[in-house]
Amino acid sequence: MFPTVSHFLEYLFGIQVPLPFNTFGVFVALAFIAGYWAFTHEFKRKEALGILHPIKKTMTIGKPATTTELAYNGVFGFLIGYKLVYALLNYQLFVSDAQTVLLSLKGNILGGLFFAGLFAYWDYKEKNAHKLPKPKTVEVTQHPYELMGTLIVWAAIWGFLGAKIFDNLEHWDSFVKDPIGSLLSFSGLTFYGGLICGGAAVLYIARKNNIKVLHMLDIGGPGMMLAYSVGRIGCHMSGDGDWGIANLNAKPISWLPDWLWAYTYPNNVANEGNPIAGCVGRFCNELPQPVYPTPIYEVIVCFILFLILWKIRDRIKSPGMMFGIYLMLNGLERFFIELIRVNTKYNVAGIHFTQAELISSILFLSGLGLVLYSYKNKEKLANY
């Protein structure tokens, strides 16, 4: 396994390059990039079809930087400099434990003050360069795809919060033992928490910009499936604990790689299992028994599902149907992968289930209902 990018580079090229990048985090970033690409294409396609429309906005240009703007930039610059300079001066600690460096209160005051002044001065000079003797109000055209920067930021912030909240609810005993550590840890993220909270934030921004809910949902279906597939690569490569149950069965196909059938996740970032003999460092554990590598199964299945959604998107005309199909496929995929995946089981009235099984069932039924609603009301929704 490759808990950090440095481990991956060492495996590929045999060289040690100390980099403070967690493999899982890198693939989360790549997942957002993949989603950005798919969302943008769908925004442009639907605008070309006349389904979405650009909107007119007014803005005032030529104003000098206000005190409030300078203060905001100064505070932002201070936070950047406070952590960045401290990380550079303590680079080995940053490489070995970036999470502690970023989430602790430790930092460099002089670095923070320097960057605070730099950011405030930058904003002042930028606004001053475009200052007019008399500020004026102009009308600008904003295309729907130009919202993607704002949507990505909101989805990332609220998606992360939702993923942490749902994960801590699922692992309540661990949360009670160390609530601060559980909330601040970058590991332990629940996909459905991110989907629900991040999705709600995206819909809020879209609605504020006159994009109707069903159209925004349809735009998001293929992109979210692709992003999930890419993100799961990070889960597998880092060994973050999203693996399956023990698999001691013989390989059904002789040429199938061992890591695709049963894997022990050596050097996993979750630090679970038994110590590896001769290994030195933070990530030196390996599972005692091989397990189903469920993250890589989801990578493959969800990428195929993305290709299906991408292929049929031109043929679906009724608003809401695309997202309904996405919910059904997502629910089915996650429900069946849960059958061979390690997870917390709940017991209600003698029925055993996981959080993901419950939510995936709800999503499937919701998707089915949305498909039926869209189909029955396609004439009514024609001018939606």
TrEMBL record:
Tagged with keyword Ligase: no
InterPro entries: Lgt
Transmembrane segments: 20-39, 70-89, 101-124, 145-166, 186-206, 213-231, 295-312, 319-337, 357-375
Superkingdom of the source species: Bacteria
Keywords: Cell membrane, Glycosyltransferase, Membrane, Transferase, Transmembrane, Transmembrane helix
Its EC number(s): 2.4.99.-
Any one Gene Ontology molecular-function term assigned to this protein's record: glycosyltransferase activity
Family from the record: Belongs to the Lgt family.
Protein name (Swiss-Prot/TrEMBL): Prolipoprotein diacylglyceryl transferase family protein
